[in-house]
Amino acid sequence: MENNTAKEMTRLAIEALEDKKAEDIHVIDISEVSVIADYFIIAGGSNKSQIQAMCDNVQEKLGRAGYPEKQTEGYQTANWILLDFGDVIVHIFDKENRLLYDLERIWRDGKQIDVKEFQMS
User: Fold this and answer.
1) What is the pLDDT of residues 41-80, one digit of tens each?
2) Based on the structure, what is the number of domains in the chain?
């Protein structure tokens, strides 16, 4: 079954990240391999201020659309911020921690989806 809510949340989150110049955004469909969420969004930022701005923008954009956030982790240190919106989990990393944790490799059983698939047509 298609989860259109999760797709819409993912689209909004990608837009919010791109608004703040996120680097190397990846989307992984984990719905077939995990019950924790449908999509992981992984993005990079170059410094603490940018990473926090990306986080703030995602929270604002999804909040305005009526998608309440369940939890945020790591905002103060901003080397890895996790935003849990239920069906969609957003990970925003600095360069060092993105390489260290390598979520794309850990979740390789999920399906990598081109970010362009979520852009408005």
Assistant:
1) 999 999 999 999 999 999 999 999 999 999 999 999 999 9
2) 1
